[in-house]
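To: structure desk
From: M.T.
Subject: fold request, one chain
Message: Could you run this one when you get a chance? Sequence is below, nothing fancy, just the single chain.
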Amino acid sequence: MKTYTSREVSAITGLSIPTLRYYESIGLLDSVQRADNSHRRYSDDDLRRIEFLKRVRATGMSISEMGRYVDLFRAGDETLAQRLDVLLAHRQRVQAQMDALADTLDFLDAKIARYHDLQAQQAAMPEAAS
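Reply: Done. Structure tokens follow.
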């Protein structure tokens, strides 16, 4: 079974080594295996969990909500409905953020178009005689 060092996992995931250690210390990651020299050795399962955590964090899920989801996951299949509820609620929040950003983008596009029009009008006006 292939394992990865903290440095390799940091390079693969883009998360800093302190963040990886923090996620482990607060229980978002299971205790990471240790090599004979006591260095952390991450598994493919750890990488999949880290990728999940990275993605939901990037979309604004709180650390506490991430912890709730991980706790439900650890509790087993009887929590499937609850995990689904967590993900659906988070998806709703993400969709609302995306909708708000789309509205803002439309506003910015209209403003940019207006400035382009103003520049075109200025360029078409003859220079005032001195």
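Reply (cont.): The mean pLDDT is 94. Let me know if you need anything else for the meeting.
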